[in-house]
């Protein structure tokens, strides 16, 4: 198995996965996969050729002919086996995530568990894919719907959740009867590939689930290929906008979950310790490399006096390699990501924000080459600063101090993004006002990162989303199926021909 090779001392070439087996790429373009804590090369990933992408799509198209007719019960059994294998392999999956992404092992294990929730949801496909029936909608006429698979689907995922994000896509897609091509991030592909191998072990027929690697050119191939019917993307706004337009112009169904600027309001009646601890976890966990990270903190009224304590608790967080279970923050995924974060921190200082805690030039003993950035906190942030208008995607918290809840709601609603937002309060009235007036798709009440459980849909909104339907929950089933409506009337064998009816009505 590939997971055994990647954890060995040799540097493996990461294969493609086509037709139910690993395939070594013939590509001449390869990229080193680095351990972010050490810069050690842990694998090499190919950028697939057009012929290899075409081969994967052709295998998926061929497999679709029989997979679409596989019974719901059999698809459910495969999903049940897959969730069992996923649960049994939490530890090795987490190790692969930490090795290539850098997040701490406890965080990586939590990621696998969130992916597992989606697979468990897909195990309910026998009820999720049901249609509707109206018997005698007109005299002797029945009308019913059939939710049929689309064909070959594709998924393009970001680096920050190499297991959870693929689970947001292919388990429901294949459970609905589609076949699938996954293009994981080239920065940390090994755990994604291992995940696909586990799904294959669970009983998916060859060709149902495939993996190709690469960068923008491969993504464009998937958008353009005439045999791919739908594309799901999770990543940056720039790339997501391009994917959505290109796929849509090619006649495909598309969903793109994109960038964010998430805010958290803290009212003075909140539980102070709980609120501060949750703020730090939401802002600095995974070194801030989460699309749902709550990087904007809005302290309202007397809660503004909590700022010194927020800074001191942040100063006490431990930074280290992800393999250190006592570490609170691991390294950032790459040198480029670290450089971008530090550049944005510098811009905040230049543009007049008060730098209360500086995470630049962070040194971790024994790891001189690690991509470490420590917790960083700004106050005095305004809506015109780069640290507000851009998604930092690093361990930086920006604090805005306001007088009232109304001011805080207005501040958030003025931002174009709508991925997630939270409030910490002990007032039911304030929480209800917030959830009703806020123009953001996912709301947390005393919950810092409001990603819903997998049987509810991911409902980011506004500039954070393109497409009507999101991942997970009922919307995912709608996205990966085509509703066919059947209107049927059956006549008795000895019925006469009746009269000619030139109207469109049925009674």
UniProtKB/TrEMBL annotation:
Enzyme Commission code(s) on record: 1.2.1.27
Gene Ontology terms describing biological process: L-valine catabolic process; thymine catabolic process
Keyword Oxidoreductase included in the entry's annotation: yes
UniProt xrefs under SUPFAM superfamilies: ALDH-like
Pfam family, one: Aldedh
Domain Aldehyde dehydrogenase: 25-486
CDD domains per the UniProt record, alphabetical: ALDH_F6_MMSDH
Keywords, comma-separated and alphabetical: NAD, Oxidoreductase
Superkingdom, natural source: Bacteria
Similarity field: Belongs to the aldehyde dehydrogenase family.
NCBIfam families referenced in this protein's UniProt entry, alphabetically: MMSDH
Protein name: methylmalonate-semialdehyde dehydrogenase (CoA acylating)
Organismal lineage: Bacteria, Pseudomonadati, Pseudomonadota, Betaproteobacteria, Burkholderiales
Gene behind the chain: mmsA2
């Amino acid at each position: 198995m590939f997971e055994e090779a990647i954890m060995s001392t040799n540097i493996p070439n990461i294969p493609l996965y086509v037709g139910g087996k690993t395939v070594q790429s013939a590509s001449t373009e390869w990229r080193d996969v680095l351990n972010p804590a050490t810069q050690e090369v842990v694998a090499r990933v190919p950028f697939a050729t057009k012929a290899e992408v075409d081969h994967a799509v052709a295998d998926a198209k061929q497999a679709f002919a029989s997979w679409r007719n596989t019974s719901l019960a059999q698809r459910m059994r495969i999903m049940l086996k897959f969730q069992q294998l996923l649960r049994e392999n939490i530890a090795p999956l987490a190790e692969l995530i930490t090795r290539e992404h850098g997040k701490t092992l406890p965080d990586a294990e939590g990621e696998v568990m969130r992916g597992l929730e989606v697979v468990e949801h897909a195990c309910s496909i026998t009820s999720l894919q049901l249609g509707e029936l109206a018997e005698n909608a007109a005299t002797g006429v029945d009308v019913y719907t059939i939710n049929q698979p689309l064909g070959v689907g594709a998924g393009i995922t970001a680096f920050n959740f190499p297991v959870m994000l693929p689970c947001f896509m292919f388990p429901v897609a294949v459970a609905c009867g589609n076949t699938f091509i996954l293009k994981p991030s080239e920065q940390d592909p090994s755990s994604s590939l291992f995940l696909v191998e586990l799904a294959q072990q669970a009983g998916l027929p060859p060709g149902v689930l495939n993996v190709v690697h690469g960068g923008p050119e491969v993504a464009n191939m998937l958008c353009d290929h005439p045999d791919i019917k739908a594309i799901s993307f999770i990543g940056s706004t720039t790339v997501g906008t391009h994917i959505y337009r290109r796929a849509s112009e090619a006649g495909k169904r598309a969903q793109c979950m994109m960038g964010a600027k998430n805010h958290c309001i803290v009212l003075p009646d909140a539980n102070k310790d709980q609120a501060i601890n949750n703020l730090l976890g939401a802002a600095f966990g995974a070194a801030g490399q989460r699309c749902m990270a709550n990087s904007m903190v809005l302290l309202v009224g007397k809660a503004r006096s909590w700022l010194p304590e927020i800074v001191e608790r942040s100063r006490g967080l431990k930074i280290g390699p992800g393999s250190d279970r006592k570490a609170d923050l691991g390294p950032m995924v790459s040198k480029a990501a670290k450089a971008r974060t530090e550049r944005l921190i510098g811009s905040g200082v230049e543009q007049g924000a008060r730098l209360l805690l500086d995470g630049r030039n962070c040194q971790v003993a024994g790891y001189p080459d690690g991509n470490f950035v420590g917790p960083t906190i700004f106050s005095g942030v305004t809506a015109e600063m780069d640290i507000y208008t851009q998604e930092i995607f690093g361990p930086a918290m920006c604090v805005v101090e306001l007088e009232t809840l109304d001011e805080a709601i207005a501040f958030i609603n003025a931002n174009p993004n709508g991925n997630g937002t939270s409030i910490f309060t002990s007032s039911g009235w304030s929480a209800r006002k917030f959830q009703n007036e806020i123009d953001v798709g996912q709301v947390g009440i005393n919950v810092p990162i409001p990603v819903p459980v997998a049987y509810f849909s991911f409902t980011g909104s506004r500039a954070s989303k393109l497409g009507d339907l999101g991942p997970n929950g009922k919307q995912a089933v709608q996205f990966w199926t085509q509703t066919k409506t059947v209107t049927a009337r059956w006549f008795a064998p000895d019925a006469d021909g009746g009269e000619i009816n030139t109207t469109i009505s049925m009674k």
